[in-house]
UniProtKB/TrEMBL annotation:
Subunit and interaction comment: Monomer.
Compartment annotation: Cytoplasm
Pathway it works in: tRNA modification; tRNA-queuosine biosynthesis
Cofactors named for this entry: [4Fe-4S] cluster; cob(II)alamin
Primary role: Catalyzes the conversion of epoxyqueuosine (oQ) to queuosine (Q), which is a hypermodified base found in the wobble positions of tRNA(Asp), tRNA(Asn), tRNA(His) and tRNA(Tyr).
Species, as recorded: Aliidiomarina sanyensis
GO MF term set: 4 iron, 4 sulfur cluster binding; cobalamin binding; epoxyqueuosine reductase activity; metal ion binding
Residue numbers annotated as active site: D152 (proton donor)
InterPro entries (UniProt xref): 4Fe4S_Fe-S-bd (IPR017896), 4Fe4S_Fe_S_CS (IPR017900), QueG (IPR004453), QueG_DUF1730 (IPR013542)
Protein's UniProt name: Epoxyqueuosine reductase
């Protein structure tokens, strides 16, 4: 009887702890916090199919870790729950249409305009774990938490865990969606050994909409809920280290780091709330930068201007490669051609290949005229009609 009463008291205290966790999470700047169990076995077959289809491209670590991604308890032994959190990053005055519509500017995915989210969120998750520990020492003397934070930093299926925790549902573009904030948020997890009460998932609310599939410049969303990373501009500009396949260079437009198109057309993102987090506010040189201005950077300037930013990890060579493609997609001008020609003699083989492509594109357009990008025009019209609040 005493044992049963003890278990009942512990259950009540764990329920109270969950309420505390959500309160602390809000105080630490997380817009939503949920609890999930760690059973992701139903995702294993889809993960294996994705790997078998080589949709991960050159991201060898995906294949190397295999099914570990769907088995969080193996990643941090003893864990039985994930405390899943999300933090909004959409900047006020995001200027999507302005930058995408100006081929002399460079577009950086809006998640990368501020400080590196990995560092921001991991630090907050550590603080959340410390608060849980202090609570347990005071109120649950027979329970000692053992936790580990994750922010896109280990082989773990973050979106399925967040979905189980009630933070949203998986959209057809494979991103997590929520009725309050669309998909403009980062995810993080705290794996923990406490059997906390779990939250319920949200219902799927994409319906028949396929806007994200239709708008993708490279048709990387090969089917609802299936993304071929090898075609994705975010993968090509960030993860991929080699030459960008020529078939995807023109569709890249002026996107030099990531791509937000599938989010921009999503109806749910009209309701997104701009972030209150100062760390995610745009750094001036990257908000609406001129291509020529960025091209003038040397490696030391690149490292200085991207300090503390997720952009730094792609390195200066990939940065120049991506810029060269954007040059090739701009309207031809003497300034652009001269800037490329000046850099060509000292360029690495990788960058040199893309400079030569860009020069050929600019010269061709100078002779034949610049073709109209109807898909980009459509995207800009959609964005201008349905911008998120205050964005």
């Amino acid at each position: 009887m005493q044992n049963s009463e003890s278990k009942s008291a512990t259950t009540v205290k764990l329920s109270e702890l969950v309420e505390k966790i959500k309160q602390w999470g809000s105080e630490l700047g997380f817009q939503k916090v949920g609890i999930a169990d760690l059973d992701l076995s139903k995702h294993e077959s889809a993960l294996q199919e994705w790997l078998d289809n080589q949709y991960h491209g050159t991201m060898d670590y995906m294949e190397r870790h295999g099914m570990l991604r769907a088995r969080p308890a193996d990643l941090h032994p003893g864990s039985v729950r994930a405390i899943s959190v999300r933090m909004n990053y959409l900047p006020p005055n995001a200027r999507f249409a302005e930058v995408l519509g100006d081929d002399k500017k460079a577009f950086v995915s809006r998640y990368a305009l501020g400080r590196d989210y990995h560092k921001v969120m991991r630090k907050r998750l550590q603080k959340l774990g410390a608060k849980i520990t202090d609570y347990c020492l005071t109120h649950l003397h027979d329970v000692m938490p053992n936790f580990r934070p994750f922010v896109d930093s280990a082989p773990i299926l973050e979106r399925p865990l967040a979905e189980k925790a009630g933070l949203g549902w998986t959209g057809k573009h494979t991103l997590l969606l929520d009725t309050d904030d669309g998909s403009w948020f980062f995810l993080g997890e705290l794996l923990i050994n406490l059997p906390l009460p779990i939250d319920q998932p949200q219902p799927e609310q994409c319906g028949k909409c396929t806007a994200c599939i239709t708008i993708c410049p490279t048709q990387a969303i090969v089917a609802p809920y299936k993304l071929d990373a090898r075609r994705c501009i975010s993968y090509l500009t960030i993860e991929h280290a080699g030459p960008i396949p020529e078939a995807f260079r023109r569709p890249m437009g002026n996107r030099i780091y990531g791509c937000d198109d599938c989010q921009l057309v999503c109806p749910w993102n009209r309701y997104a709330t701009p972030t209150p987090e100062e760390d995610f506010l745009p750094r001036h040189p990257l908000h609406a930068p001129e291509l020529l201005e960025l091209w003038a950077w040397d490696e030391a300037t690149f490292l200085e201007r991207t300090e503390g930013s997720p952009i730094r990890r792609i390195g200066f060579e990939r940065w120049q490669r991506n810029l060269a493609v954007a040059f090739g997609n701009a309207r031809p001008s003497a300034d652009l051609i001269e800037a490329l020609e000046q850099r060509l003699p000292d360029a690495s083989p990788l960058v040199g290949e893309h400079i030569e492509w860009a020069l050929a594109e600019l010269r061709k357009k100078a002779l034949e005229g610049t073709p109209k990008n109807l898909q980009l025009d459509r995207l800009i019209r959609i964005v201008e009609k349905g911008l998120p609040r205050d964005a």
